[in-house]
Amino acid sequence: MGNRVIVITGVCGCGKTTVGLALAERLNIRFYDGDRFHPEANIEKMAAGIPLTDLDRQPWLSAINAFIKERLPHETLIIACSALREKYRMELSTSIDPAAVSWIHLQGSYDVIYHRMLERKDHFMSAEMLRSQFDVYEHPKSGMMVNIDQHIDQIIENIVSGLALNKTDIGLIGLGVMGTSLARNIARNGFTISIFNRHVDGTEEGVAKKIKSLYPELQASQPFDNLEQFVTSLSAPRKILLMVNAGQPVDDIIRQLTPMLKAGDVIVDCGNTHFKDTERRQNELQKKNIHFVGAGISGGEEGALNGPSIMPGGSMQGFALIEDVLMAIAARNTSGEVCCDHIGDGGSGHFVKMVHNGIEYAEMQLIAEVYSHLRYNQQMAPVDIAAIFDEWNRGETGSYLLDITKNILRFNDTDGKPLIDKISDVAGNKGTGSWTTMTACEVGVPVPAMAEALFARYVSSFKADRDMYTKHYPQDKSSISIGTENLRLTFMFCRLMNHCQGIKLIGQASAIFGWNIDAAVLLKIWSGGCIIRSNLLSILRDGWAEHQDVMMHPYTINLANAHLREIKATVSQLALSSLAFPVISSCLDYYKSMVTRRGNTYLIQAQRDYFGAHTYRRIDGNPEVSHHTKWM
Ligand code: 6PG
């Protein structure tokens, strides 16, 4: 839509300037007061209480007309002008495309306006002039009639919705660190955006306006702390991104939003929401024909600002409505591919983000285990370990997490000593790691690397117990040295097992829930922007279509066949130290279990049958037949 002029008309004292200024702020455009185009002689006449004639008004109206024509190629503008008669309105808009003019006629009774004028100071119009204005006034034939006898906010909302002008492309709710970064990313990519943050007395006041003023790219955004106004500002079908905390806050905001939305609108939850909550919300909103997309977003603050990895799930129709925005703001990998794609139906988007975080937990713990060996078994300084990680990071071992770890290890506190040595070892979590582990149990897929990484955090929280136990169980301080290359190979091997578990979990869940998730698409999405992005993911992507299984990937097969001996030796050496290496140990065990044709669980079956008559199957007969033995 091209530029427009919004002309606010009405008798003196009806509030043209007040409404014009408020509307200008709301629409983020400029307001011009038509009175400033009066020749001096007109102002003097009016101040003296002498009504203007048509002849007096003529130069004034043509000056405004010329001004509008000059400005229209450059901006959409608001101008206030009494334009009391139809003739004046025509003069004002001479040679201007009628489609580019929006008339807003402020309407109020003589009494209401008269009393307002009595309160007004510093204006050349006296209250007595009002009668003459009412005498001249001709009721407009067209345009929007707006009753001034209501609150200014309501007047503005009525005008904005009536104008259907300056509606934004998309809205974002929740202006925390991630929400603000995402809003800036969206605006930078050329989309117009409305931003909303709730109002909480004393703690969250005028947040959206403040955020808008802080960042140049949000200069054209429309800020709100009134949800209804926020929704009104959006073009239809409305597209609303939620960046609020997962859980109850998402339900609360949906409950408030729903009555204001229409069929065909779409809400996109960008938080770390549990996929089952997403599916429940999808089902509830579907009854109202409102789309609900659960989009996992990874990359932290930096990613949200410059390009996160985005995992949207839900109906294809809902996704199609916001596809252009999501694709534009997502990260690009080194080959220029967009790290965003439709994952599948239902809660599949949030499911894969959850598993991403499970993999993330184990990747982080693996680095921590390698670090603790080098730091305490080999007594290396953080800065020297950083040098090793830096070296590893340059090759196939490279990953975002290794890169940031090396930076962390080089970071010194104000006293010049490594900050890492002063950080408490009690680790927090926000739930996605435990959801991954619990869901793996629900669908029956082993994820020991992720579970051990999660449990390592839980163990860390038993601080008082650990302090007490160390007094009774002396620490073995013997130094253990492992070659750096063997350590790297073991680290890579464990990472392969971790990724293998995550992808198998996604495959099983996809089959159970009918999501049809394509792991190849996931590997692409995770190749940039997200926290687990790494060179290993690129290696796995290579030729993925042929085997679709990390254990069957030539890289895994080659690594295991060439280096299993060193890897086992490394893990056994680590086991001799007094430190715990739960993820490293579990990965080797996972591998061994998975490559064992006949495991030891036949004994479990026999025991189950012994005490509970749970039956077992035989390998020397029909494998479908159940057997029970009277063991005593
Ligand atoms: C991401 C991160 C992000 C967040 C984790 C942290 O992909 O951008 O995973 O989602 O940092 O939720 O989770 P914990 O607090 O549980 O470690």
Entry keywords:
seven-stranded mixed β-sheet; five-stranded parallel β-sheet; binds 6-phosphogluconic acid; 27 helices; 9% strand; alpha/beta; single chain; 632 residues; elongated; 52% helix
Short précis:
By secondary structure, the chain is of the alpha/beta class. It is built from 27 helices and 14 strands.
Largest sheet: 7 strands, mixed
**General shape:** elongated
What proportion of the residues is helical, as a percent range?
Answer: 40-55%
Bound ligands, named by name, code or SMILES: 6-phosphogluconic acid
Number of helix segments? 27
As a percent range, the share of strand residues is: 5-15%
Mean pLDDT: 94
Report what the structure shows.
This protein is an alpha/beta fold. About 50% of the residues lie in helices and about 10% in strands. Strand 10 (about 265-270), helix 12 (about 275-285) and strand 11 (about 290-300) form a beta-alpha-beta unit. Bound molecules: 6-phosphogluconic acid. 6-phosphogluconic acid binds near residues 298, 357, 429, 432 and 530.
